[in-house]
Specification:
heterodimer; A: about 325 residues; alpha/beta; D-Maltodextrin-Binding Protein, domain 2; two-stranded parallel ribbon; 9 strands; about 40% helix; B: about 700 residues; mainly alpha; MetI-like fold
Chain lengths: ~325, ~700
């Protein structure tokens, strides 16, 4: 049976195109690696679903691309999927890790496929927040003991007759189900789905003066727009959250750190040094995050704007690459 | 198409030769009374035993099955480095796809180090794809290809658009390599067909959301998982249609060929394949459409492409970007559909449209759904003189020269290699849409909240209360008896098996909540579909006006619906239901419309002569006579709805869908997420079987 005409033609044309490709290409200059170090190659950064993380990822990514000549791939994944990706070698780094003691044990201690790469300099806070108008009108709501008194206010169609506690992305670090149960709160955790959904809910609650109790966190650019008020849970003491099912205390303060895959760490890529030396403050991160989330800038452009304004810090990160 | 197997039904009278406005056989079954009886038992039982034995489990609580799966997962992860199967076989498959995707990407979409740009720049890619369109389908479709691909650039999503094409093409080519031989083998051996068909059923009924996590575990996240995910979903239609195509080559032809002394392989190559070629091309077309519908979900496993933009938009409540990216996916769908259809039509001298394999009378598990917007190609069927093969060859050769020049230029100049940013209008469009949506949401948010509360408090919550708060054994009994009354003994067996599976996963209560949402959404779908479908079936103008919208809506990936639904209604089950309804309405409406139109005109005339009003005509004649289509529309509506209700877990839909999402993102919930995936599949199979067997029973009036 004869092969159809056009198939053969496509084959011929493809071959011709490839041949042409091979000899052309003189007009566009190749990327050259700055500095004398090893060339960088590809650099796969996990991007977790909150804007603060996006800021970290793109600032490091843009620096790696422009100063080290890396080919940067941003992989949009949930936190734990990122860990899994580092373990299997498809992801090189997570730039903002929130604790995850169980995963540290599994991948860092036992499997030894992931390594700690130092602190980001960001201090993380997780907690329950109410919009400003509520804290003004009901000053005692900031104590968890009074939450049940107000539970009926927080009722929604989704909360099954109880008060609603709105949570974020399903992948976020949370003890909320256990907290509600162990503190005997008359509340139901309802999952909002994303950071943007939480922000949207706070905005509309403040605008319409409707009640809202929600999971939120710092570093977070949104605090510069709205001063949310934190509800104090029973004080955190080291070890009080050891058993996930029996947690009855507030979230610990998180010292956010970076992680790299062992494979990547051993590759000698200059990006390893960059990741290890990357550090900045909550204000820095919030600035970039605000460019992205509030001003609607593309993450690359937001990162470039910040990098151009902070050359000294960036040069510190690049020392030794 | 033999979609519904109609086993002999002892109770039913043989179908009357001439259609009659009154169907007598149905009344004997007293279905309505039996269902009412079940409902009474149910409500009484519920009111007495509410809240007992509901099998509700707290979100974080794991059962032994879940922990067993978690352990298995850990073992697989540990073994992934050394084990011959996971490292040797799967690892190599995974590496191969990753390598292949990267190679093609570096050729056309991502920088190919050390070059700062791909090997072939955008101008070259546009020219080459346009030329492929010309060679395969003709000038018209070449233009469509060029416009579509240029739109990637103008929308600022050049790389993602091309990446989506790459993943789709690789998956489809792999499907062709695997699927056609399998389909051929199945057409020749009955036992093989019997063995493989249930596997295909499962592949198609199981919501792809359910197997994301294990897939990512085995193939790792990235392009290879995306390709495999796409293959799993898009392979079944190709296999089924190939088998069907070869099976339906007339037996007389085969005999004639056999009498000429052809061997088996000659028979296949010279007779069966050429005669089935057109059907197989339809299969490839369906396979391509199915592959494209995975474009968004593959973003969950970090697959490259437009799905990333839709997912980000969902995360950032960015309706504008979702609309732009979703619109491009629709354009790609139309482009691929048109070119493959046109390619098959121009090559085939034997005319006569393929008996629509994908159209009416098809249950999901038999062949895929008609997802292709047909309106744009209808007029292309006007026959005109075709240029001779030689002329075509010459003209293709001549056109190839400027194409190659474009490729060359795109390697020489940065502006021709990288799509100029100043031509990117996507951001502006997205911003305008967002401004409009914000304005609109602000205008209507009191109304939307009111509507949401009305449906949630009025319908959803009471029904959920009834279904999820009944003791499990009562609910199981209700489902069994409804299945039996509607679908007979085979439906009863199917329901029993599926119930056992759901109980086994330990997620009974969550399954009932998901079932409630599915039912509510399906009811809404059927109400809308009936209104629109009857209008379309009775009125040509309505049909011509509405159908293009349905075609377009059908092509939009289900995830895209979540974004505006979220903007309008906030988080919650209702949002998931709204998205599900939007996704389910087009197919159901089309089926209803086709059914109404299919009512024989003599019947309608006879009824009209008897002097009935329009309303009586609709209620007493057309709807009852189109019952088969209505059942089918319900079946399709149910399955479409279920697939979206599940992803509704992302927008606060809760229950099984949320468990799947969580299982994918929280280490200790992996096993529970997988269990939820199994429960979803069981629910889907259960609904499909009940609807299918009732269709077999009630369909033929």
């Amino acid at each position: 049976m004869r092969r159809p005409l056009h198939l053969r033609l496509i084959g011929v044309a493809a071959a011709a195109a490839l041949m042409l490709s091979a000899c052309g290409g003189g007009g566009i200059k190749d990327n050259t690696t700055s500095g004398s170090g090893k060339s960088c190659g590809t650099f796969n950064i996990a991007v977790n679903p909150w804007t603060g993380y996006v800021a970290d990822a793109y600032v490091v990514g843009v620096v790696a691309q422009e100063k080290l000549g890396c080919t940067v791939n941003y992989k949009n994944v949930k936190e734990e999927v990122g860990w899994q990706g580092m373990s299997s070698g498809t992801i090189d780094t997570i730039l903002e890790n929130w604790g995850h003691a169980d995963l540290v044990k599994k991948y860092v201690t036992d499997q030894k496929t992931v390594e700690d790469a130092g602190m980001t300099g960001n201090e993380g806070i997780i907690g329950w927040y109410v919009p400003p108008w509520m804290a003004q009108k009901y000053p005692d709501i900031t104590n968890w003991k009074n939450l049940n008194k107000y539970a009926s206010m927080f009722k929604t169609s989704e909360s099954g007759g109880k008060g609603q506690l709105l949570d974020g992305d399903p992948s976020y670090v949370t003890n909320d189900e256990a907290l509600v149960k162990n503190l005997n709160l008359d509340y139901q955790v309802v999952v909002g789905g994303s950071e943007a959904a939480l922000i949207q809910s706070f905005r509309s609650a403040e605008k319409n003066k409707t009640p809202l109790l929600a999971y939120f966190y710092e570093p977070q650019w949104f605090f510069s727009e709205m001063k949310l008020v934190r509800v104090h849970l029973p004080k955190y003491t080291p070890g009080c959250d050891a058993d996930a099912a029996k947690v009855a205390c507030d979230y610990p303060p998180y010292h956010l750190n970076k992680l790299i895959s062992t494979k990547f760490a051993d590759s000698g890529s200059p990006a390893v040094t960059l990741v290890k030396q990357f550090h900045w403050t909550n204000d820095d991160q919030n600035e970039v995050a605000e460019y992205i989330a509030k001003d609607g800038m593309k993450p690359e452009d937001a990162a470039k704007k910040w990098i151009d304004a902070n050359p000294d810090l960036v040069n510190q990160w690049l020392q030794g690459t | 198409m033999t979609a519904v197997d109609t086993a002999p039904e002892p109770a039913a009278a043989p179908p009357p030769k001439e259609e009659q406005p009154r169907i007598v056989t149905r009344d004997k079954r007293h279905t309505g009374w039996k269902l009412l009886g079940i409902a009474v038992v149910w409500v009484v039982g519920w009111s007495l035993l509410k809240g007992q034995n509901t099998l509700a489990v707290p979100f974080q609580q794991l059962n032994s099955f879940d922990t067993w799966i978690n352990g298995l997962r850990d073992d697989i992860q540990a073994a992934a480095q050394t084990n011959w199967f996971f490292h040797g076989v799967i690892g190599n498959i995974s590496d191969f796809f990753n390598w292949l995707v990267t190679q093609i990407q570096q050729l056309v979409s991502i920088p190919s180090p050390p070059r700062p740009v791909p090997e072939i720049g955008w101008l070259g890619v546009v020219a080459l794809l346009g030329w492929v369109g010309l060679a395969a389908a003709g000038v018209r479709w070449a233009l469509l290809v060029i416009v579509t691909v240029l739109l990637f650039g103008f929308c600022g999503l050049w790389q993602d658009g091309i990446d989506t094409l790459i993943i789709t093409v690789i998956a489809v080519v792999t499907c062709i390599v695997i699927g056609i031989p399998v389909g051929i083998a199945m057409s020749r051996r009955k036992w093989l067909s019997a063995a493989i068909t249930p596997v295909l059923d499962i592949m198609q009924t199981m919501p792809s959301f359910a197997y994301l996590a294990p897939l990512a575990l085995i193939f790792g996240i990235g392009a290879s998982s995306a390709v495999v995910l796409t293959i799993i979903y898009s392979l079944p239609p190709l296999v089924r249609i190939t088998e069907h195509g070869i099976r339906t080559v007339p037996a007389t032809t085969i005999e004639a060929a056999g009498s000429m002394g052809l061997t088996q392989s000659q028979l296949l190559r010279k007779v069966q394949l050429p005669m089935a070629r057109r059907t197989i091309v339809v299969g490839i077309n369906q396979c391509t459409m199915a592959a494209l519908s995975m474009a968004v979900i593959s973003a969950f496993v970090a697959g490259p492409g437009l799905g990333q933009d839709v997912m980000n938009a969902l995360q950032n409540l960015d309706v504008g970007t979702a609309a732009v990216a979703g619109g491009l996916i629709v354009m790609i769908a139309i482009m691929l559909d048109r070119t493959t259809t046109a390619a098959s039509e121009r090559r085939e001298r034997v005319q006569g449209r393929v008996a629509s394999v994908s159209g009416m009378g098809v249950m999901l598990t038999n062949v895929v759904l008609e997802r292709l917007p047909r309106w744009a190609s209808e007029d292309s069927r006007v026959s005109r003189r075709r240029p001779s093969a030689l002329m075509r060859r010459i003209s293709l050769g001549v056109v190839a020269i400027p194409v190659l020049v474009c490729v060359y230029l795109s390697r020489q100049y940065i502006d021709l290699a990288q799509f100029p940013e100043s031509w990117d209008f996507g951001g502006d469009i997205a911003r305008k849409i967002n401004d409009f949506v914000n304005w609109f949401v602000n205008q209507v948010d009191t109304f939307t909240t009111g509507f949401k509360n009305l449906v949630t408090y009025g319908l959803l919550n009471p029904l959920q209360d009834l279904m999820a708060q009944s003791p499990w054994w009562l609910m199981a009994f209700v489902l069994l008896s409804v299945g039996f009354v509607l679908g007979g003994i085979r439906a009863l067996v199917a329901v029993a098996v599926c119930e056992a599976i759901i109980l086994g996963t330990g997620l009974w209560n969550d399954s009932m909540i998901t079932l409630t949402m599915t039912l509510v959404a399906t009811i809404l779908v059927m109400i809308i579909a009936l209104v629109l479908g009857v209008a379309m079936g009775r009125n040509r103008v309505a049909d011509v006006t509405i159908r293009p919208f349905l075609d377009t809506f059908q092509t939009i990936p289900s995830f895209v619906y979540l974004v505006p639904a979220l903007a309008l209604f906030g988080v919650g089950r209702f949002t998931a239901i709204v998205a599900a309804v939007a996704y389910g309405v087009p197919i159901a409406t089309k089926l209803v419309a086709d059914g109404i139109r299919g009512v024989s005109s003599t019947t309608v005339e006879a009824a009209r002569a008897s002097g009935i009003t329009s309303w009586q005509m609709i209620l007493k004649v057309q709807i009852p006579m189109a019952r088969e289509s209505l059942v089918l529309a319900t079946n399709q509506g149910l399955l479409y709805v279920l697939s979206v209700v599940v992803i509704g877990g992302l927008v606060g839909g809760g229950s099984l869908g949320y468990l799947v999402v969580s299982g994918f993102s929280q280490d200790q919930l992996f096993g529970k997420g997988l269990a939820a995936g199994i429960a979803i599949t069981a629910l889907g199979v259960m609904l499909d079987r009940v609807a299918r067997y009732s269709a077999a029973r009630y369909g033929r009036g």
